Amino acid sequence: MTGALGIYNYWIYVLLMMIGLYGVIAKPNLIKQAIALGLFQTGIFLYYISMAVVDGGTAPVWTTILDGAQKYEGPYDNPLPHVLILTAIVVSVSVLAVALALIINIKRAYGTIEYDEIEAMDQADKRADYQRGQVTDAADDVEHRQEGHHHA
Amino acid sequence: MLDAFEIVPNLPVLVVTVPLIGGVLTIVMGRGKGPWAWATLITGLVFYFTVLLMQQVLAAKTGTISYELGNWPRQWGIEYRVDALNAFILLTVAGVGFVTTLYAQKSVEKEIPQDRHNFFYAVWILAICGLLGITVTGDAFNVYVLLEISSLTVYALIAMGKDMNRQALTASLRYLILGSVGASFILLGIGYLMMVTGTLNMEDMHDRLAALPDAVHNRTVLVAFAFLLVGLGMKMALFPLHMWLPKAYTYAPSAVSALLSATATKVGIYMAFRFLFTIFGVGFSFVAMPANVVLSVAACTGILVTGVTAVRQTNLKRMLAYSSVGQLGYIVAGFSLANVNGVAGSVVHIFNHAVMKGGMFMAAGAIMYRLGRCDLRAVRGLGKRMPLTMAAFVAGGLGLVGFPLTAGFISKWYLVQGALEAPHMWPVAAVVLVGSLLAVAYTWRVVEAAYFQEPEGDSALVTEAPLSMVLPMWILIGASVYFGVSATFTGDISMRAAKSLLGGAP
């Protein structure tokens, strides 16, 4: 296959990444954000693996054919991106593990995993602190307006 | 004795492996002072290694040490490569890491439950390991792996502040998500570069990119460049990609804020040096591509916006966090000038800002230690109650302003010179000066509260922080004053680093 369709795995990689990125930005549920992050990173794995393909290539393993005399001499796919992505998968699993650990702790501390509810509770905390005279900041409103914009 | 263990020839790799193994072993060091003592030992050892490494680099004829892991030639294996620039960054990271470990003992005792101290120091050492690894390696994919080691541990360190304030958890999660997206962009950028060059070694990448007939119009190279620029911007908290930083630094345990402000974003900037200057080269990044315009506009806007925001803060840690984003802006504005003085100012400011801001976060942490909070109201009258801590804060603040005889003055001297030399870049010099005035404003608010107002509530009864906190604080602040008066060492190293980054260009 040639042309734009011939590189369809690259289209899938872009699509996966965009879905992931959208989820990370737009979903208020923290678990959904973690899933979206996983999707985003999976897109990148697909990209690396697609990059390794060589026309007519096969797995880079030396195979002896039947009588043992002949060896397949290639072409082989590039094994390096596969190795790299093994590492990246481990990294992405660790990221997901840390994210889930944090979400469990957030659930324990706040009783919810919806970002907007958590935000409202933090605001209420801040007002309580203000009334106790601990914090005097009008300025934090600026930050929260920016944050609101960012998560919109 | 050193040679018996073959330490000297293996220094570049020991800088990473010693804290990597040491960090994991921390978990079995018991629940008392053991983990802290172990962390001090490991970070002290690593600091000693980086000093030796610096001497080696200064003595080397070519000014570069190349170390091939497992003796694999660099085309196949991983090469660690140390020159004046990363020897200097290694020294900064390991030095500040060691001093903050000394400081951490009391602060951590107060802020983190006893039964988690071994885990805390384990991730603490691993975070330093990751940061040192990014700095020492000459392999682009290795950068990504070590970047994730440092990022994951940093997320955990920030979340450890949850016993003080539950917002540490959300701050950490948000940093995790933005940080992972940033790191993924870096991974993609590296992937596209590998597609074009077929190598992961930074030097080889540079040579092959330079050999490309028309790199400037090569789509793959352009995509790599764009992904890397955004990913690095996220990691070094370049305005407007800094959203994760203020909350993370505010709610992290005090010792962690001090460590991060001094090292984490600095290593992000070091990565930008490597990718923009060493791999793509000045000609591509700053002449053919408009990276200098994009970066300097973002940095200058950042200096002004975060400066104004910092003035309006009442929580000391948040004020320092916003100020950090602004100070990172100076560093980015400096290297985007792409001339010797600008880049040298940028390199020297990495060190100067690390010691100043590290010391100031330690002062804020000392106030936290005594009062459990560090807003402007708590600071009232502390000039008399905690004289050493407040004096350290003010000395650091003068450094941020760029007052003569402080380290900040040296950086700004180089930066302004660089801005005036570069064509049409004079607005950068103006922004540096306005930024300094904003630093005067937010430092002054603290001075006013501490020295000209009467203490109230707990603040009236409080005493000076323990010596084990004040001493490390003053080591960093003292360094910022010492290198402000006598800048020969830092200045020379930065000049050398700048010249090698610019590759002999004027």
Automatic annotation (TrEMBL), chain A:
Topology in membrane: Multi-pass membrane protein
Protein's cellular compartments: Cell membrane
Pfam families listed in its UniProt record: Oxidored_q2
Stretch forming the signal peptide: none
Transmembrane segments: 6-25, 83-104
Principal subcellular localization: membrane
InterPro entries in UniProt: CPA3_antiporter_subunitC, NUOK/Mnh_C1-like
Keywords noted in UniProt: Cell membrane, Membrane, Transmembrane, Transmembrane helix
PANTHER family (alphabetical): ANTIPORTER SUBUNIT MNHC2-RELATED
Family, per entry: Belongs to the CPA3 antiporters (TC 2.A.63) subunit C family.
Stated name of the protein: Cation:proton antiporter subunit C
UniProtKB/TrEMBL annotation, chain B:
Residues of the NADH:quinone oxidoreductase/Mrp antiporter transmembrane domain: 139-433
Xref: InterPro entries: CPA3_Na-H_Antiporter_D, NADH_UbQ_OxRdtase, ND/Mrp_TM
Location(s) in or outside the cell: Cell membrane; Membrane
Transmembrane segments: 12-29, 36-58, 84-104, 119-137, 143-161, 173-200, 220-239, 251-273, 279-307, 319-338, 350-369, 390-414, 426-444, 465-485
Pfam families: Proton_antipo_M
Record's bilayer topology term: Multi-pass membrane protein
Domain of life according to the entry: Bacteria
Entry keywords, A to Z: Cell membrane, Membrane, Transmembrane, Transmembrane helix
Family from the record: Belongs to the CPA3 antiporters (TC 2.A.63) subunit D family.
PANTHER family attached to this UniProt entry: NA(+)_H(+) ANTIPORTER SUBUNIT D1 (PTHR42703:SF1), NADH DEHYDROGENASE (PTHR42703)
This protein's name: Monovalent cation/H+ antiporter subunit D family protein
Protein source organism: Nannocystis bainbridge
Lineage of the organism: Bacteria, Pseudomonadati, Myxococcota, Polyangia, Nannocystales
